[in-house]
Design brief:
Keywords: Oxidoreductase
Family: Belongs to the short-chain dehydrogenases/reductases (SDR) family.
Bound molecules: acetoacetyl-coenzyme A
Radius of gyration: 17 Å
CATH architecture: 3-Layer(aba) Sandwich
Largest sheet: 7 strands, parallel
CATH class: Alpha Beta
Number of helices: 9
Number of strands: 7
GO biological process, one term: poly-hydroxybutyrate biosynthetic process
Strand order of the largest sheet: 3-2-1-4-5-6-7
Distance between the termini: 36 Å
Strand content: 5-15%
GO cellular component, one term: cytoplasm
InterPro entries: Acetoacetyl-CoA_reductase (IPR011283), KR_dom (IPR057326), NAD(P)-bd_dom_sf (IPR036291), Sc_DH/Rdtase_CS (IPR020904), SDR (IPR050259), SDR_fam (IPR002347)
Helix content: 40-55%
CATH superfamily: NAD(P)-binding Rossmann-like Domain
Length: about 240
C-alpha cells in the first residue's frame, strides 16, 4: 500500500530532506511551504514533489490546504510538523510580536495542522504524527525564550496526543534535532556558531539527512509500538 505524507516547511532545509527521504521510501509526498516561492518552485522542479503554499499559523488556511492535498493525493497517513521559525533576542529586548510569531508558527501551527487531520486518521485506524521539536526545547537556549517555549510545548503536545491516538493506530512522536547545517543555523553569528560547534561532542553540525532518517523510521508501519517518544539527534550535545 502506498501511503501519503504531508511535510510542513517541506521545501527547504530539514523539511526538504524529509520530503525527499519519504519519497525515496515509497511515499506519495506533498510539501507545504509558507513564503519562499522561488525555493519551492526549484524544489518541485528538482524533486517532482508537489508544493502547496499556506501558513501553518492560520487554522483555516491549514484546513483548506489539507483538503486540497487530500483531493490531489488521497487521505494523508503521515503528517510531519516541521515548519518552524526563529526570532532570537535576549528576553529584555524580545518584543511581544517576536514572542507571538514564534508561538503561532512553532506551537499553534502543530495544532492547526494536526487537528484537521485527526478525525480522518482515527476513522482509518492509522496515522503517524511526527513533530520536529529541538534540542533547545529540551535544554533551553539563551535568546530563545520564545523558541524554547514553543519547542518544549511541542513535546508536551506529543506526549498528550500519543495517549489519545494509541487505540486508534495513530502514533505521535517527536524528533529533537541539535544544530543542523541549515539556513536557520547559518543565520546565527559566525562566532556564536563556532562556540556552539565546540560544544558538540561529534565535532560538527548535523546533516538534514540525519534527521530525515529518524522521520522515515518513525513513519514506517514497523514503528507502531513507538508512541509519545522523542528521538534526540544532536551529536551528543545534550542527553535527556
Ligand atoms: N550565554 C550567555 N550569554 C550570552 C550568550 C549565551 N549563550 N549568548 C550571548 N550572550 C551575551 C553576550 O556575551 C552579550 O553580553 P554582553 O552584553 O555582556 O557583551 C549579550 O549576551 C548579547 O547582547 P547583545 O546586545 O549583543 O545581543 P543582541 O541583541 O545583539 O542579540 C543574539 C544577539 C540574538 C543573542 C545572537 O548572539 C544570537 O543569535 N545568538 C544565537 C542564539 C542561538 O543559539 N539560536 C539558535 C538558532 S538555531 C536554532 O534555533 C535551530 C535549533 O533548533 C537548534
Amino acid at each position: 500500500m502506498t501511503r501519503t505524507a504531508l511535510v510542513t516547511g517541506g521545501s527547504r532545509g530539514i523539511g526538504a530532506a524529509i520530503s525527499i527521504a519519504l519519497k525515496g521510501a515509497g511515499y506519495k509526498v506533498a510539501a507545504n511551504y509558507a513564503g519562499n516561492d522561488e525555493a519551492a518552485q526549484k524544489f518541485k522542479a528538482e524533486t517532482g514533489i508537489p508544493v502547496y503554499k499556506w501558513s501553518v499559523a492560520e487554522y483555516d488556511a491549514c484546513a483548506d490546504g489539507i483538503k486540497k492535498v487530500e483531493a490531489d493525493l488521497g487521505p494523508i497517513d503521515v503528517l510531519v510538523n516541521n515548519a518552524g521559525i526563529t526570532r532570537d533576542a535576549p528576553f529584555h529586548k524580545m518584543t511581544p510580536q517576536q514572542w507571538k510569531e514564534v508561538i503561532d508558527t512553532n506551537l499553534s501551527g502543530v495544532f492547526n495542522m494536526t487537528h484537521p487531520l485527526w478525525n480522518g486518521m482515527r476513522e482509518r485506524k492509522f496515522g503517524r504524527v511526527i513533530t520536529i521539536s529541538s534540542i533547545n526545547g529540551q535544554k533551553g537556549q539563551f535568546a530563545q525564550a520564545n523558541y524554547s517555549a514553543s519547542k518544549a510545548g511541542d513535546l508536551g503536545f506529543t506526549k498528550a496526543l500519543a495517549q489519545e491516538g494509541a487505540r486508534a493506530g495513530i502514533t505521535v512522536n517527536a524528533v529533537c534535532p541539535g544544530y543542523i547545517a541549515t539556513d536557520m543555523v547559518m543565520a546565527v553569528p559566525e562566532k556564536v556558531r563556532e562556540s556552539i560547534i565546540a560544544q558538540i561532542p561529534v565535532g560538527r553540525l548535523g546533516e538534514a539527512d540525519e534527521i530525515a532518517r529518524c522521520v522515515v523510521f518513525l513513519a514506517s508501519d514497523g514503528a507502531g509500538f513507538i508512541t509519545g517518544s522523542t528521538i534526540s539527534a544532536n551529536g551528543g550535545q545534550f542527553f535527556v
